[in-house]
Structure formats: C-alpha cells, structure tokens
Design goal:
It contains six helices and 14 strands. The protein is an alpha/beta fold. The protein is globular.
Length: 288
C-alpha cells in the first residue's frame, strides 16, 4: 500500500480512521510512505505521523519529502535537515525492502538547498541500478521517490525530479518495473515509453491531508503482485488499485484498477485500466 503526502499538521481525523479500516481489511504486506509526511517538519507532527502509520499494522519503508525538512529554521535546514525525520522514521533515508516476490528501493530526492524541487545524483542512479541488477525474476522491482519522475500534464513538468531522464533510462535497463512518487497530489498510472524495457510511473494522491486538489479526493494506491511468498513461481500480472476516500460514505473505495504484465513475462507493453461501469465502487466502510 502506497501512502503519500500525509502532511501531518493538516490531517483529517475521519479520513485517517477510514484508512485504518482499509488497512485492517486489506492487510498489506508492506507500507510505502513516499514523502511529505508532515506539513512543517515539526517534532510533534512527525510523532503523530509515526503513531498513525504504526496503526496501519504493517512493515514500512519511507522517504522524506521537501516538507519534511525545516523551512523557516535555516540553521536546522543547513546543519541537520533530517534530524526530526530520522528520530521518527530512522536514520536510513534510502531503505530497502527485499523478500522473495518484492524488491523496493527508496531514493532520497530531497535536498536541503532546494525549497521544493527534487534531484537525483549519478551516484544514486548507479546505486539503485546495481541493486536492481541483483533482483530475481520473481521480484517486482519498485523504486520509490518523492517528487515525480514522470507527469501527465505540461503544467506539472516543473515538479519533475532533476536528473529524471537519466535515472529512468538507467533504471529501466537495470530491470525496474515501477517508480513510485507523490508530491503533486495527483494519482495516476503512466506507462513510460522509449526506454530499454517497459516501466510504469505510479503516482499517489494525498492520503489524509485536507490539502487536496479540486476534484481529486484523498487516495492511496494498493499494488498486488504474487500471492504466496513461499512459491517459486513468477507472478504474471501486477494489479494496481486506486482507492479514493468517499466523504458521503466515510470510507475508501476502489475506483480504478490497472493491470500490467512486466517485461520479463511478455515482450512489449501491456496495460488495461478498468473503472466500475456503473461508477459505483465497492466501499469498505469505517466503523461507526
């Protein structure tokens, strides 16, 4: 389950409760927290965010976002930009999760000298590529960043990670299947073409913050790959679900499903997106 841009300090209790119910219902094997965890990088906001993520009841990897570095305390920004983040989520800013069917490599794209924009260095690009090259065929290979590596709208191009083109080219050739991001509060699944092999950008909306875009509710992504961690068989289809918060129902509902087949299973690009034909998604309601 990808949870992004929680912006604690602007969180909504009813949405938080509904997300806890969803996580309890789905029991994800892993939580991916893709940055902008807090609104102003304050210790109390990090503490609240950590407590909430613990309530979701699954192992977690996370990356900081630009909001997770002090904005107004210039001394802290220069000398210890990740102090409060590290106290809550650990000193490793680029954690890795590896199990028989999944490899998740986190990449810190924030920089203390940048206010908003992200960046990836050549050293980071090569380090991720090396890790991807060690993955097995059965492992879904996911790279997690904060700022987007690909956008659908021209007006969002300003938010692209500096160095994204070189990174995507290298990571695709090294075997990446998915690159996850957040930052712009717009959920979508986007096939990336012109690379050595198919690669998909999976972007998340804001999970629980009131800082939603017009017409775009709170949402999370849920990825399904494989079913048996002890199986030696290679899964065939990656199922990507977008779950939106329905204010009337006070629950998250699955509103979009995208299924893709990774390159090592079938040559070329295969993609299918489905939405409930009656526009009536199945809802998992919060307890009264």
């Amino acid at each position: 389950m990808q949870v992004s841009d929680t912006h604690f300090g602007t969180e909504q209790p009813d949405v938080m409760q509904a997300l806890v119910v969803l996580a309890q219902r789905l029991s994800p094997d892993l939580l991916v927290l893709s940055g902008d965890i807090t609104q102003r990088a304050r210790p109390a906001q990090f503490k609240a965010a950590r407590a909430f993520m613990n309530n979701l009841g699954a192992p977690m990897v996370s990356v900081p976002g630009n909001h997770d570095i002090a904005m107004f305390n210039l001394t802290a920004r220069v000398f210890w930009p990740y102090k409060h983040y590290s106290q809550a989520f650990g000193a490793n800013l680029e954690p890795v999760h590896s199990c028989p069917h999944l490899l998740v490599q986190c990449v810190n794209t924030t920089r203390a000298y940048r206010h908003q924009h992200g960046e990836v260095s050549m050293a980071q690009i090569e380090s991720v590529a090396a890790r991807l090259g060690q993955a097995s065929a059965a492992q879904l290979r996911v790279v997690v960043v904060h700022q987007p590596m690909a956008v659908q709208r021209a007006q969002d191009a300003v938010h692209l990670v500096r160095g994204h083109a070189a990174a995507l080219k290298r990571w695709a050739s090294a075997g990446a299947d998915v690159v996850m991001g957040g930052h712009i509060h717009l959920p979508y699944v986007m096939p990336l073409t012109g690379l050595a092999r198919p690669l998909w950008a999976v972007q998340a909306g804001t999970a629980v913050s009131k800082r939603v875009r017009p017409g775009v509710p709170n949402s999370v992504n849920v990825l399904h790959w494989g079913s048996d961690a002890n199986s030696n068989s290679t899964p065939r289809v990656l199922r990507i679900e977008q779950w939106d918060f329905d204010a009337a129902q006070q629950a998250f509902g699955c509103v979009r499903v995208t299924e893709v087949e990774p390159y090592r299973v079938r040559e070329g690009l295969a993609m299918r997106t489905t939405i409930d034909p009656e526009d009536n998604p199945v809802l998992i309601a919060a307890s009264p």
